[in-house]
Design brief:
Residues 1-18 have low confidence and may be disordered. The longest helix has 24 residues, at 198-221. Helix content is 37%, strand content 19%. The chain is of the alpha/beta class and 305 residues long. Helix 2 crosses helix 9 (198-221). The protein has a single domain (22-301), classed as Alkaline Phosphatase, subunit A. The chain has an eight-stranded mixed β-sheet with strand order 4-3-5-1-6-13-2-14, with helices on both faces. A two-stranded antiparallel sheet has the order 7-12. Bound molecules: zinc ion. The site of zinc ion has 6 residues, from helix 8. Zinc ion binds at residues 32, 73, 190, 194, 235, 268.
Amino acid sequence: MKKLSFTLFAALSLTAATAQTPKNIILMIGDGMGPAHVTALVEAQAGTPVNMERPRVGGLVKTSSANDRVTDSAAAGTAYATGHKTNDGSLGVCPHGRRLESILEKAERAGLATGLVVTTTLSDATPAAFYAHVADRNDKATINAQFAEANIEVAAEYVPDLAAATDEALKILATDPDGFFLMVEGSNIDKVAHDNDGEAVLRELRDFDAAVGVALDWAEAHPETLVVITADHETGAFTLPEGDGNRWIPRPEGYRRGIEFRWGAHDHTASMVPIFAFGPGAESFGGIQENTAVNHKMTALLSLN
Ligand SMILES: [Zn+2]
């Protein structure tokens, strides 16, 4: 049995060595960004393609947590960070409280540079899932203490321009010859979707999409870079029925009616979220997958297992 698994491992290694593998991964998370949010941005641009349309690989992600069909950002962030489902509210620990090593920590251990760039605070659930290990996302004292102990090369919060901050982060991280793992979050998409504020949602989506553009430009110039763009969950039960009100997206010339923004909830929903991938290994993110599988694929592509 031992010999068989060894032979199997050797065969897998050979496959991995001949396949295209990335040296760097940029994970971009639009917090709360469901399929309709992306559609709204695309429609609002009225024919001018958005950056999220650039990758040729796309799919959907199932977002449930260990104890909830509708996840919160802590459990969803933990799924992307660690590859494990946990309970709502938990960061970097399993439902029984066991510490789970994140892809960022594995990357650090392997000598890669790491970065977190977010539009809110680094102690918020999504970024914290990559370095914190605490059962309660509101335990900010523990989260801040664990952040101080983490060896993150680039950590930027409250960035007013996510694209510029992403560009800045990439310049710093690229100086590490071993490669890097960078997580960029459009954090406020979720916040304004909770408020059902359509105008603000478009503003935050544009900010996020501009950062996606910077990441994709980087990956085109540095082909050893994989960019994965997704969301942690959908917020707002957002839909886009046609409407005469021309409230948000006016009736384009030649069309009968415009598009209304309609909201079915002030909270998260169970909707699957989009995922787009560009660069070496991108094709493995096509189709429907669990959020935990996204972590497993990234971890395997960087050989961090
Ligand atoms: Zn939320």
